Structures are given as structure tokens and as C-alpha cells.
């Protein structure tokens, strides 16, 4: 009944037959010498002697897979894949083992994120070290996947296609919901991969004593261990079991239901064939799960365990024997007391899922998230933008002075360093506080268990545009800043839903756009400025709904509305240390992924601004003759590379002038507005500053030529006497057009180049159509 | 609180707080019905309604597990009411 009777089945066999796998862990008596050879370090990886959360002297060390973990690589070291239902504590367990050394990467050919890392395990019996590759997968109810995330989980577990063959499957099961976990376990057993069962939430389950031993005995001594990812309890035993399964695998002598055929059996039908095959056996798997529940003393869906707790019974339950004789006439009776023993989580849910209080509390929580990413993060952003920038600029000035004196300070190199490199670094750093806040809030919402409740509360509303209830959170965050809003899409369980939400987020009117609204609203609408600004937010919501409906019927017509059944985990108090590790890991991924792209673009914009248009004299402008008159007495200084005094005298300005006519139908076909919108692509916050620069005006209204006056004059001219309509069109264009550079970069990182490009194109199209429509209608009115 | 029960077999969405019911069938396509089962709700399983809301849906106790189901999905699940006892007033 042990490893000598293992079944050669499933994809692992196929891989061995075609020589793709050295067969770690599936050959009985796998020699230690062979293991040493196979475990030779073929990879470059950073060695960390200790990682957080584990006492000195532990038998394993986790270290990052490699310095280039962003790329997916095949490996010959044993591969251990973690699978389980959503919200069972699988990722908490995984992170407890690998900690900050787990790297996040895209599964091959998808934008679904999986975590992976390498672990060095020391056999306590022999003190020999060996490396394992550990892979965490998205939660899935079944290998018969119904979403891209579940498909990645299933294919990774089964070694399908380009996924390497796993040696061990760690099936994480929530001890409070074993029935669901046993269904997946049956599929794991039938895959032929050596299993280890990790039971989580054991402290919360009212389970019969010795549940691990009972499950193991029922399954012919397959290793089963209770673990707690939060405290690390049971992790050492888990790793010891994994080690044994790698070298001397224990498999059941018979399949749970039906052994999964090899990959060749699905050569024509592909992955759909696998899903169909698995669904065909669903009823028998349900029966198997029920059998296992009974075998370990759970009875029918856990009823026996409840009865053993001495639960409160209602008067109705005591007379249950007569319940079958129900007459068909209408009767009324008092609502009975519940038979189920109410937990603290149940009592909290009575408030949080109340039809009235639930909504109020939900909105309050959303407001807290919004405030955290804006008001709380803002002081830190300001500190970075002012103090840190000041220090770096001073340092650059000092260095240039040391190297080349005053000439150094006047050179284009100095401009490149200060206005290009340092500006890029500061820009990236200013996104860190709001991103950190959103990661903290997401962690708290997920780890406490509230996020599932939030999804339930908002499900009905979001279903109107075909999205999961959890899509509400990123959209709310988007009204603060689009960038952390994209990070919040990771809470959605479906890749397609994440992408669709990611396409809608840029249409949320972020706080950076507000500065533009304020300047234009007060310049053109005076007493009605508030109404004009409020209208922008209303338009934002309408556009989100409309674009959502359009996307749902076109690009995302395949997004099926799945039955909404979500497990509500017990409430937990989050662990600070785990939160810090998780947030730090995600922040580093963002910085690593976004910084180079953002900095590259900023350097391009610097370059365009640094190239003077030939023949221009500083202080003299063909666009603004009044400037020439004002500066007539000043000694003209020739612009040079890196020293262009006016935007319009640079290549950047020239490009703006050539693009400006495109906006004539929208009423703001002047180069100043165009240049401002171009700079707004980098960051919406600079639009106002760019307008000030372009109009040579003081935005504070205290200068000789204030910005409001300059705007009114300019828009009146470009709109042929309809400045208010043109201003409204400009505001709507600002609302809807391409989000800032960082957002586009993050879209690319999360969803790929195609979606990022689509975001830019859709944004420009929608913005242009809306702006032209609003102006033309305004002219007619 | 009072509620009406007129049929032995009703939709899960018509169940009210405190009712215990046994799942009989799921009126969805095969793929979706299997998914409901994979989530843990299988014919023959007994559930108890902990919360019922026209706005959100229902929260049911399934053993020691808690599941939230939206109204549309709950309408597709047919159950046999087990309790409470119905007494004519």
C-alpha cells in the first residue's frame, strides 16, 4: 500500500516517457546519489542564510529563485506545487515558508500572477541540503477550471503543456470546510502526483480529535499535517512530509475516482478536453468526498461535528420528525431560533451584511481606503517631492560645481541630471506612498476576511456591468489615484474581470485631474464652478458604466456570469509582520517593474523639451509677440541644447503646435492647451503648471498676467467666441484621455502590452469624441 | 418575525432566516451546476439560512462553513424545507 504500489499515470508518466522529466519522487528507491547530482546548483540565486519568521537552526533556508525571477525558467530540482480552494490560507502558508524570498511572476503565456521561490531543505537525518522549487497557484475549486486563474492553477498542478512536472502537490484544505477541499483532493490523487495534505484553520474547526490521523488512515497513510501559516506551526512537519514524498512517495493503491489520462489522450481536444473529462466524473467525486467525510467522522456535511458541540437547538428542530407532514395551506409561524451554533463571525456578519448597516459600513470602509491612498499618503508624497527632491537637486548642483564650476551648472548635463534623472526618480518615489497604502488596505481587507463580505454587498450592483462585487474596490480607489487602483484589481478572482476593470479604471476621475477642473472651472464658470466640477464626477460615473456595458457586449462578451457562491472566511486579526512582508514584496515588484519605463519616458520628454527649434532667441517668441515687446530692451540669449527658455521654442512646443489643429473641433485648438495635455500624459498634476508656463502667466492670479485671463482670452479665440463650451470640452478631455504614464506602465506590467495600448487608444478616442460632442452641442445651445 | 411557507419544495431564495433545508436540485446548466457542487452545495446536503436579504442574497450555514449566495443563484437551487415546524396560528 506504499510507494511500491504507486500508479504510473497522469501527466507525470507522459513526461517521463518522453524524457522531459528526470522523475524525481516517482521512482521508488530514488537514490540519494542521483538526488545529489540532480540537485547540483545550476541556477544563479542569492543565498539568504536566514529569513524572517523562523528560528535559528531551522532546517530550511528560503532564497530568491534568481536575480532574474521575472522570467519563467524550467528547472530540474524537485518542484512542489501548492493548490487549494480560495481563502483557505494557502498563500499565507506559502509565504510563511518562503517569506520575502518568493518572487511574483506571470504564468507562461498569461497575465495571471503566480509566486515561486527556491527553498534549501536540510535533511535532519543526514544533514544533506537539497533545493526545491516551490510554486503557489491561484485558488481553485476544481481542476475543471472556469477562469484563467483556475486554469493556471490546474495546469501548473498537472504539469500540463509547458509547465514542468511537479514532484509533490501540497493540497491545502480548510478544516472548517473539508467537503470542498476533499473534492479537489480527489482530483489531486487521481493526477498521480505525490500528495501532501495541509490542513489549515484547524483551530477554528469543531473537528473530531486526531483529524489528521483519520484522514491519513482513510487515504492509505498519505501524509496529512495541520498547519498555521500565521504562526508557522506545523511548517517543519509539512516540509518533512514533502521531503519524504520526494524521495519515497506514498500514493494510494487505487485512484480516488478515475486516474487522469496522460496528456496524449487530449492531443486533439486540448485543455477543454481535460475539463470535460473531469466534469464527467463530478458526481462520483462528490460521493468520494462524502465517503471521506463519513470515514473521518464528519457525517453529513459536518453535522456530526456540530452535534458533538452540543449546539443550541430550537423548538422547531426538536420536533423535526413531524416536519415532513407539512400542509399546503398558508400558515404563519414565528421565526425559530437558529439550530446552527453562531460564531463571533456570524454575529459580526449580522451587522456587516445588514441591508442598511451593511451598505453604510461598506461605504465607510471604501471611504477609509480612499482617504488612505490620498490624504494619508499625500504628506509623504509632498515630503518626497519637496524635501527629497531638494536634497537630490542640491547634491547634483554641488557635484556639477565640483566637476565643472559655473559652466557645469549651465550645461545640458546638469539639466539632464536635475530635470531628467532626478525628476524621474522622484516621480517613481512619489507613487510609493499611495501604492504602499493601497497594499496595506488590501491586505487588511483580505486578511480580516471582510473583502469577501464586500464582494457580496456590491455583487448585485457590479453585475449590471458583468463584474464581480470585488471590482467596486479598485474603482473607488481610482477616484483617488488610478495607479493603486490597478494594484487593487488583484483582488478579483478572474483574469478577464481584472483586465476589464483595468480598462475602466482610467475613466475614474482621479484627484490629479481635480487641479485642472478647479483652474478651468473658476476661470470660465465663476459662481457655477462647483457645479462644473461636480459634473465631471457625474460624467466619470456615466462613462464608466457606458464603457463597461460596451466592453461587456464586445471584447468581454465571453465573460460569463458565473453563479455567485462565495465562502465567507472567519474573521481574523491580521498579523503585522506578515503584512509588512507582503506589502514590501508587492512594493518592490512595482518599483522594479515600473521605474525603468517611467524614467525612460521622462527622459524622452526632457529630450524633446531640451532641443531648441533653430533660430529662436530666448525671450522672443513668434507665438506671443507681446513678449517680444516686453523684452525688447533685454539682451537676447540664444537657446541651446538643454537650455530652452520657453516651451514653444523647443521641439516639444513645435510638436504641440503641429498637433493643435486636431483639437479645433473641440474648441481648444491652440498649442498651449495641446502642450498641457501632452505633459498631462506624464502626470495630470503638471497640466496646470504647463498651462502657466505656456501662457507665461502666474497661476496664482497675483501676477501681471494671471492664468485665468490668459485662458479666457486664448479659448475665446480658439473657439470663435464660445469659451465656456471649449473649457468644458477641455475638462472632459482631461477626464477621459490617456491616464498618466505610470498608470499605462502598470497596465503593461499587469495585463501586457496589448491592453496597455488599448487603454491609451480607448482613452484618446472616448476623450476626443466626448470633447467634440460637448463643444459642438455647447455652440448650438 | 413571521414568514410564509406554502410548499414542501421551494427555491432557496424563498427560505428565510432560521429555516433548515435539504438541497434537492440545481436548475442551472451542467457546468454551473457542477460548480455549485464544487463549492460545496450538493444534493442531499443540509443547510441553514443565517441571513436572508432581498438586496444581497443569503448567507447559509453548511456545516461549519458559511457561504454567501446571491439571489439569482439562490433562485436556481431547489430545496426541501426540513424545519421549522409549521403551526397554524
Automatic annotation (TrEMBL), chain A:
Transmembrane regions: 351-370, 421-445, 471-489, 501-525, 531-551, 587-608, 725-745, 757-779
Keyword Glycoprotein: no
Stretches assigned to the FeoB-type G domain: 77-248
Localization annotation: Cell inner membrane; Cell membrane
Pfam families according to UniProt: FeoB_C, FeoB_N, Gate
A molecular function GO annotation: ferrous iron transmembrane transporter activity
GO cellular component, one term: plasma membrane
Keywords recorded for this protein, A-Z: Cell membrane, GTP-binding, Ion transport, Iron, Iron transport, Magnesium, Membrane, Metal-binding, Nucleotide-binding, Transmembrane, Transmembrane helix, Transport
Binding site for Mg(2+): 95-96, 99
Residues noted as binding GTP in the record, renumbered to the chain: 84-91, 136-139
Keyword Secreted belongs to the record: no
UniProt topology in membrane: Multi-pass membrane protein
UniProt xrefs under PANTHER family: FE(2+) TRANSPORTER FEOB (PTHR43185:SF1), FERROUS IRON TRANSPORT PROTEIN B (PTHR43185)
Family: Belongs to the TRAFAC class TrmE-Era-EngA-EngB-Septin-like GTPase superfamily. FeoB GTPase (TC 9.A.8) family.
Function, in words: Probable transporter of a GTP-driven Fe(2+) uptake system.
Alphabetized NCBIfam families for the sequence: feoB, small_GTP
Name of the protein in question: Ferrous iron transport protein B
Provenance organism: Aeriscardovia aeriphila
Automatic annotation (TrEMBL), chain B:
Domain Ferrous iron transporter FeoA-like: 10-81
Gene3D superfamilies in UniProt: 2.30.30.90
Signal peptide: none
Annotated protein name in UniProt: FeoA family protein
Keyword check for Iron: yes
InterPro entries, per the entry: Fe-transptr_FeoA-like (IPR007167), FeoA_core_dom (IPR038157), Transcriptional_repressor_C (IPR008988)
A single GO molecular function term of this UniProt record: transition metal ion binding
UniProt KW Iron keyword: yes
One Pfam family hit: FeoA
Keywords on record: Iron
